[in-house]
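User: Hi! I'm a student and our assignment asks us to look at how structure tokens line up with a sequence. Could you show me two examples?

Assistant: Happy to help. In each example below, the sequence comes first and the structure tokens follow. Example one:
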Amino acid sequence: MITLYTNIKELIQVRDKTVSFVSGKQMKKLPTIKNAFLLVKNGFISDFGSMENCPKIDAEVTDVTGKMILPSWCDSHTHIVFAGNREIEFVDRIKGLSYEEIATRGGGILNSAKKLQQTSEDDLYIQSKTRLEEIILQGTGAVEIKSGYGLTEDSELKMLRVIKRLKENYDIPIKATFLGAHAVPSEYKENKEAYLQLLIKKVLPKVAQQNLADYIDIFCETGYFSVADTELILEAGKKYGLIPKIHVNQFTAIGGVQAGIKYNALSLDHLEEMREEDITALKNTTTMPVALPSCSYFLSIPYTPARKMIDAGLPLALATDYNPGSTPSGNMNFVVATACIKMKMTPEEAINAATINGAYAMGLENEVGSITKGKLANFIITKPINSYGFIPYSFGTLQIEKIFLKGKEVL
């Protein structure tokens, strides 16, 4: 099937294949073409350019006068496979309890793990596919999904099987991450080392054997897992070909950034607390820092110091952290807006962070994240808007008219 989109008010994020991600000052540059065309063939981007160079070919023509086209959002950090919700904890936080206090009382990740362990695989799939469909309709065209709410061998594998089913049943590119080291189960409270060995010796081999994950992750944080624990898990994952990612520097900075760099982590996520030495360590690496502003918004914790990091020459990606406890939303439009409003990122920086850099943080930079010949035709047609800056400006209104995955309209 061949479709030609004409009279595009502005075609956003047009890139050559050689660009994997953008850093520092380059994040301020968002290449676009005004009064453009876009040609899609068999689910892939075939051509694009100015209307004066629009090809005259036999194709289905769609006139999008007054509207813009940009690549779908690339959400590189989610936990959308979970059971139930945690709105009671939401109320507890309003009443003054901190995230850490709730976790100490048996809430938090352990609460979600208990619910998930009691949920059948089919029910978990049904709950999760509803969330996946929700984020697709909000413009997300590629997503990474983590385990980590199982915290037992059976439940972690159950989560990963659900992610695999989602991958098989939906057109959206999905990457799976094994996050067994998300928290220490209550039964291992006094013997964290035994739990780590369970993950390494029993769960990891099955994850690899059944081809259930692309990445391995760990929550490197005070009260959860140390830098030594992190290196242990990353080393174990490396033996099975799992690429590292780390939850790090969310509440405290304890050296996890340096551990991630040491193990060539694809991404380091959260980074709300960043020391000068952490920023310096990330310079000239291939590790993508990932900010999760919805989490900061929901928990009322500091935001990732995006301005400081970008001005230091670093790249940055944006993701939702969609999960039941600290970010019960997968809306990347809100993430982009919050990055502009609270983190002082320009619209250009935020869109770069939520598209091309987000794609890189999932290892999908050759498939999605930009309007590039040969990439998947995963894109958004906006409503009639004055400029792309209106997307974060109108933070409470979805400025999406149509959504396409592999060239097929889903909205």
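Example two works the same way, sequence first and then tokens:
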Amino acid sequence: MSRLIEMEAFATVIEEGGFTDAARKMGISKSSVSKHVTSLESRLGARLLSRTTRSVNPTEIGLAYYDRTARILNDAGEADALVAALHATPSGALQVSAPNDFGAHMVAPLMGSFLKTYPEISVNLELGRRDVDLMGDGFDLAIRMGEQKDSTLRSRKLCDVEHRLVASPAYLSEHGAPQQVADLIDHSLLQSSNRPGQGIWKLTTPDGAKMRLSANGGFCVNDGQVLLQAAMSGMGIAWLPDFLYREALNDGSLVQVLPSLPRDSQSVYMVFPPGRFTHPKTRAFIDFLAAVRF
């Protein structure tokens, strides 16, 4: 006989106060319930129930055994429910955190297609600079830039973002094009307050040397789109991710500054809570973004 069925029969007898009511709840015959309990007692070599013609009560050993059995049966029920949930149609409210610029320009435009594919999911996309506490703040998933330091979270690489120095042709015509990194000191360097180490640019020269420059453009903003517009209007040189400058570079509104500099790329990751299982709504979102060619 199945050990779990024996345990269920024993626990149900205690909870229902007898074999008759236990049989009714389990949907089997009274004799079957009795056989399961007898088999359990035989296997354990201990009497778990004290039976009289009028009542059935757990023995001292039976009471202790019931305590552990109830927990095991509860865990088994939760395991069954988990499997059912993982096979269910993805649904529910999905809480997602993403950086301002990447979220606004790369994630938000995809939401219509995602929601059309998964109509039973709703998405709350929160854009911001801070790294949210996924579990503490109630988020299912976050998108983060750069290598991830929190080893307790699971992660999946989404893409690489390349950063370049860009400026408008008009600005370079008026102020001259820098020929080497040191020349940037004499230029208006536009700042992004979304970057770590605000006001400091860390650049690598073509020969591999590392340089730190103070951005002295007189303009700082926490929105990449505004920084892009500032560069296009001729206010100075900006250090921007490719998803922001790509179109302006193609139409000539911006040109690369010091194009011989080594590639400066940053990885983008999806991070989600630890655990062996991922909720269907979160898994659907992860797989959807992973299939996109950013």
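Here is something you could point out in your write-up. The domain at 92-160+267-290 is CATH 3.40.190.10 (D-Maltodextrin-Binding Protein; domain 2).
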